[in-house]
UniProtKB/TrEMBL annotation:
Residues 117-351 form the Protein kinase domain. The chain crosses the membrane at residues 45-69. Belongs to the protein kinase superfamily. It comes from the Eukaryota. The keyword Transmembrane applies. The lineage of its organism: Eukaryota, Viridiplantae, Streptophyta, Embryophyta, Tracheophyta. PANTHER family: OS01G0364800 PROTEIN (PTHR27005:SF281), WALL-ASSOCIATED RECEPTOR KINASE-LIKE 21 (PTHR27005). GO terms for cellular component: plasma membrane. One of its GO terms (molecular function) is calcium ion binding. This is Protein kinase domain-containing protein. Residues 1-42 form the EGF-like domain. The keyword Transferase applies. It holds the Pfam family EGF_CA.
Amino acid sequence: VDECKQNSSSCPRGAICHNTIGGHRCSCPAGRKITKETNSCNPDINLIVGTCIGSSVLVIIIFCTRTIFERQKLTNVKKQYFQQHGGFLLLEKMKSDQGLAFTVFSEAELEQATKKFDKSQILGHGGHGTVYEGVVKDNILVAIKRCALITDRHKKEFGKEMLILSQINHKNIVKLLGCCLEVEVPMLVYEFIPSGTLFDLIHGKNRTLLHIPLSSLLRIVNEAADGLAFLHSYANPPIVHGDVKTSNILLDENYMAKVSDFGASILVPTDEAQFVTMVQGTDKSDVYSFGVVILEILTGKMPFKLDEHEQQRSLSSSFLLAMKENNLDAILDSQISEHECIWSCLADSQI
């Protein structure tokens, strides 16, 4: 006897009736079960919860596995960059030289120091990168430079160059405190210099507000010259700055000059064959650029003006033309031209 056909209400609504020998049984569709209290097919809570937990565990396992893989991959990339930039050689040299005050920072440390390189931390932009204000361990205020690019030659020699630059210790040179080598383009960590740049002093509002006397400006330039002379003559090996300009001459709290930004620095090669390949980047180029710095002080003008006539676009060309025409008063800054001892001051400053 087919009890399912004889009694259509033998199972709750939504259930499926199965005829058996001497009786019948009822079943619900997948994901549901018969509830005795309501005698109906209701969702199987245990099954749903179990499925959700199982799916969640599976997702977590996949996520964790992927995260571990990505971290391992990132770690390998960082190690590759670190090795590529001469990091291991630098560490060995640092161990052998116990007194060297130089730190190799991790990317995470510098991200934390700059609030993940937040725009609010930017001190300035340059042709070689962006400089951020940051606070590293022991609440030390620093300037962190993210370089824009690096040549293949510098990649191989970077660790070695950092070791040499870190040993430069002069009152008129910004101290290099450390670097980060586990990124594609290394980052440099310098001491923080609080009072802006010589560029700001000459071309900004500060010059008018502070009424900086000529003697102070010449003192600043003389201090910057001392810094450059140290790099050229007393550093071992000699170092060419390569990017001397007023924005790279910083001023401390006492308005003492400190030469900064060694992003373009070139360690002068000792091998003559190497030297022949260096068409640019000699101490003579630093001296020429420093001459332009002096002209900026004397004239209060920018080194280049693209909107001027071709002969007057370059400050150095304009100055030479004014000298040729015996018309220096026309190009000198009004505050400077009124200074009676302009040439004697220059002579006294040994510039």
